[in-house]
């Protein structure tokens, strides 16, 4: 799942989405195009790996459903993994055949993250003691805080994907924290899209920092909850650093890929926290 996420990011960052023209599932009418350009190799590789992953996810979902038929969360996660990986595949195909808006293209990465988190949680649950599933005992208020934090994280992910697909990664120029020498910018411009993502990311950092402090203060006896928010805080700090480095390095490919990788770790961590507080 991580490999496919990274390959999808490479396709976007190298503008290889049109590496096969508007031909799908074949590439220029061929299974393996002759004398392909670099962008064609990147696009075809992503298609092959994604197709193979889709088969593996379906096998995993059926296997998990049959192995743990009594667990409600297994059924939900298995269905979610299959549904969203198929959905993001169809969305990718539609983007190749018909031109899509930036808003629609931005949802592609979001759907991939949901499928990734579903597979990750299935993997974690497969190692869990069947007779003693872990349940986090927190107040209803803190439980709602975790739920809304997760929803907000998804919104921040969407704003980041929108930055990429609108070509706004350098919308504020090669500077930080100012945006083209100012703290404000014109609405509707690439700079405003980039600045929106920056502001949303700052709020996310403060929210996770508060949740980490609250968990440390009030749930010190629950190691998993504390560790979860420790990792969440670490990942959001690394995410912020990598985001700044993208701007300062003028869209260095490896820095940009690390940005996508770290957000996957953060999304997976909060997904698990949602799972353990959801359980009755």
From TrEMBL:
Stored Pfam families: COX15-CtaA
Gene Ontology biological-process annotations: heme A biosynthetic process
Cellular localization per UniProt: Membrane
Record bears the keyword Protein biosynthesis: no
Swiss-Prot/TrEMBL keywords: Cell membrane, Disulfide bond, Heme biosynthesis, Iron, Membrane, Metal-binding, Oxidoreductase, Transmembrane, Transmembrane helix
Top-level taxon of origin: Bacteria
Membrane-related topology note: Multi-pass membrane protein
TM helices/strands, residue ranges: 48-65, 77-98, 104-125, 146-163, 195-215, 227-248, 254-278
An annotated Gene Ontology molecular function: oxidoreductase activity
Cross-referenced PANTHER family: HEME A SYNTHASE
Protein name per UniProt: Heme A synthase
Source species of the chain: Fictibacillus phosphorivorans
